[in-house]
Design goal:
The protein has ten helices and twelve strands. Strands 3-2-1-4-7 form a five-stranded mixed β-sheet, sandwiched between helices. A five-stranded mixed β-sheet has the order 10-9-8-11-12. It has a two-stranded antiparallel sheet with strand order 5-6. It is globular, with a radius of gyration of 19 Å.
Length: 295
């Protein structure tokens, strides 16, 4: 049996699956927004599982960011309290066993590539549009990490075909740069831009409800969001040309995206046709934790 841990900025989820991917047990707890609290939460989840189920063969953890090849410390995590910390070694000391750690977007993509929306495809690009914006690349069921462990970090590239006026709509990214795709496509980015333009203070769910009532502000906001998503993903197609692009995270639940994205993206891809389809995930918000277990 395999344990997967999905370490998010809001919640930490543990999942126990068998060798066929069948769910045996799962539990979620709030993520403590400090380093020691995060470690303690994971240890408590794994200890609880081990008390209930003895035959644990492996532990995989999906988390924001990655382990630096130079320092063995966490880098590039939007859960910023994790950055610069020896997370893997500290956790292994506490657990007294080895763990496998992978970027959360890579785990999401692996899950969907193994037995989700991308199971019938060779080159799978998975995108998480939630609290942040990350992506993973899986080819023939294997995660592609890249020479710098930066493969899939399209959320920290500049929004394609933008101008200064558009860039100034979004907040400066936590990475220190302006115009990052993450600041436009993430849930906080989407709501932040809407609230700035309309001088409101509402959530993404509120915006979707306004759209259903044919509110012109909400219609414009969703049209702009899909256009920015199309521009961002067209750059991925122009470089990687994946077989399929699978969306996850809270923003991926907005049906307006799938009703329009595959039509809009054709304007920006350098080809006379676009075979790559952009689809919703199959495993929902459990994709990440399933991918961690599959590690």
């Amino acid at each position: 049996m395999k344990v997967g841990i999905d370490l998010g900025g809001t919640k930490t989820e543990a999942l126990l699956i068998d060798e066929k991917g069948n769910k045996i047990y799962s539990k979620r707890i709030p993520t403590q927004k400090n380093y020691q609290g995060t470690l303690n939460g994971i240890v408590e989840l794994i200890s609880e599982i081990e008390q209930k189920f003895k035959n644990i063969n492996s532990i995989g953890i999906g988390m924001p960011g990655a382990i630096s090849l130079e320092t063995s410390l966490i880098k590039s995590a939007n859960s910023i309290w994790m950055n610069g910390k020896p997370f893997k070694s500290d956790l292994e000391k506490l657990l007294q066993k080895k763990v496998k750690i992978e970027n959360d977007a890579n785990c999401f993509t692996l899950s969907e590539a193994v037995d989700g929306a991308g199971k019938s495809y060779s080159i799978v690009f998975g995108v998480i549009i939630g609290t942040g914006t990350g992506a993973g690349i899986v080819i023939d069921k294997k995660i592609i990490r890249g020479n710098n462990y930066a493969a899939g970090e399209f959320g920290h590239t500049s929004l394609p075909r933008s101008n200064d006026k558009e860039i100034n709509l979004a907040k400066k990214c936590y990475c220190g740069l302006s115009g990052c795709i993450e600041t436009f496509l993430s849930g906080p980015g989407f709501t932040g831009i809407f609230n700035k333009i309309n001088q409101t203070n509402i959530t993404s769910e509120d915006i979707v409800e306004l759209y259903k009532k044919k509110d012109t502000r909400a219609i414009k906001a969703l049209e702009d969001y899909v256009d920015r998503l199309a521009r961002s993903l067209s750059a991925v197609i122009n470089i990687l040309d994946p077989d399929i692009i699978i969306l996850g995270g809270g923003m991926s639940n907005i049906e307006f995206i799938y009703e329009n994205i595959n039509k809009v993206i054709s304007k920006y891809v350098f080809s006379d046709y676009v075979k790559t389809r952009i689809v919703k995930n199959i495993h929902g918000d459990s994709s990440g934790v399933r991918g961690a277990a599959w590690l």
